Amino acid sequence: MKVNLIGAGNIADYHARSIKSLGYELGVVADGNEQAARRFAEKYDCRWTADTTLLLSEQADLVTVAVPNAYHFEVAKAAVNAGHAVLCEKPMTRSAENSRELAELVRKSGNPFFVGYMKRVHPTARKFKEYARRIGTMRSGLVRVFHPMPEASWTIIADQLAKSPKSTMDGVFVNSGSHMLDLLLHFAGPVRRVLAARMQYRDGCYPNVDAMTHALIEMENGATVTVECGWLPLSGVGRRENGWDELLELRGDAGLATLHTTWWERPQFESPVAEIWDEALRTRESFNAGMIDNFEEEYRLIRAALSGEDVPLATAEEACAVDTLIDDIFAAARRSEI
């Protein structure tokens, strides 16, 4: 499989490493910053260009969009219009309106299109789907996302925003919470409405970069789900006491299913853990598939999908649902400020 990559920033490293480690071909990387593109190409032994149009004119089995969030829409749209199969980093776009437009374009094109919610592809997450079916009628849920953001980082962010008020930076909810919202929708079904939401900001960061988000949402089946998401300098909390505290909990009439996800950039040290309390059996069951790189698993599944296999990768329609929920929670938070 030949993959061409748009974007040479931090997240592109994870994609390139996975492509190379799987023995796939990394053809060319494109980035408007020529120096960054050249360094990236030297590091990963591929060609480079500063012209995305040139990359899109070249044949490839897959084009990966790994540019900053604010540019996903235009770059992914160009890749689809050029006739490519596409992997777009999450979130698919930064607005529900743009996501609906892109999803419709993908539908009309018929081209394969995947969105990088790679936490759902881990075998432990797939086991959780079985557990979620065993809890009976879902009554409530919890989405928790807390990461150990150093205090010093907020001064750096505020200084950057002061110099560039129109910066395309996003906060914790978009960058970290979106993964867990995808898991919630993937395992628990659609959302009916957002009941309440509130966001907190550090000095100098409003409204670009949120520090903490809380929301209460109602699922289509009537269940209520609490969402809490934040960046905090708490280094010893979470399942592994490393400051990374991500949990999806679904509670039903017949059981309680939980999924603890991991520090996404450390697959060689950590693995997600899925658990269920089965009330009928009066037993607790746990599953841990081991140290599996989410990015590598994502590319394995993409190759399988391009060969016609049915795989649990996020589609444009599913990613659009996540972006719609994100917009709805932001809107509810704005109403709470009035």
Identify the notable features of this structure and list them briefly.
338 residues; alpha/beta; Rossmann fold; Dihydrodipicolinate Reductase, domain 2; 2 domains; eight-stranded mixed sheet; six-stranded parallel sheet; 38% helix; 26% strand; globular
How would you sum up this structure, described in words?
This protein is of the alpha/beta class and 338 residues long. It has two domains: 2-115, Rossmann fold (3-Layer(aba) Sandwich), CATH 3.40.50.720; 119-291 and 313-337, Dihydrodipicolinate Reductase, domain 2, CATH 3.30.360. The chain contains ten helices and 14 strands. It has helices at residues 10-21, 34-44, 52-56, 72-81, 96-109, 123-133, 151-163, 172-188, 294-306, 316-337; strands spanning 2-6, 25-30, 47-49, 62-65, 86-88, 113-115, 138-148, 191-200, 212-219, 224-232, 245-252, 255-260, 273-278, 283-287. It has an eight-stranded mixed sheet with strand order 8-9-10-7-11-12-13-14. Strands 3-2-1-4-5-6 form a six-stranded parallel sheet, with helices on both faces. Strand 4 (62-65), helix 4 and strand 5 form a beta-alpha-beta unit. Helix 4 (72-81) packs parallel to helix 5 (96-109). The longest helix has 22 residues, at 316-337. The termini are far apart. The model has no long low-confidence stretch (mean pLDDT 95).
